[in-house]
Design brief:
With 76 residues, this protein is mainly α. The chain contains two helices and two strands; from the N terminus they run H-E-E-H. It has one domain (9-75). The protein has helices at 9-17, 54-75; strands spanning 22-23, 27-28. It has a two-stranded antiparallel ribbon. The protein is elongated, with a radius of gyration of 15 Å. The termini are far apart. The model has no long low-confidence stretch (mean pLDDT 85).
């Protein structure tokens, strides 16, 4: 049984490598994973968004709004 609040490192790696948790092999979608920015399939490539976690989606929207604000502020 997997402890959803504190999964082991082995479970986290298993989730990242499971192809069923990747939509089209690009978008990470795992309802059991509570991390906002889990590592990509190849951890050396950085992190990705867990689209099954509403906090992750809000983080992405916030980051996009921030960069849009900075861009428009510079252009004015």
């Amino acid at each position: 049984m997997v402890d959803q609040d504190n999964p082991s490192q082995e479970t986290l790696e298993k989730w990242s490598k499971d192809p069923d948790n990747w939509i089209w092999g690009v978008f990470y979608y795992n309802k059991g994973d509570k991390r906002i920015l889990p590592p990509k399939k190849n951890a050396w490539m950085g992190n990705t968004i867990n689209f099954a976690n509403p906090k992750s989606v809000l983080f992405l929207i916030g980051a996009l709004l921030f960069f849009a604000f900075v861009t428009f502020s510079i252009l004015k």
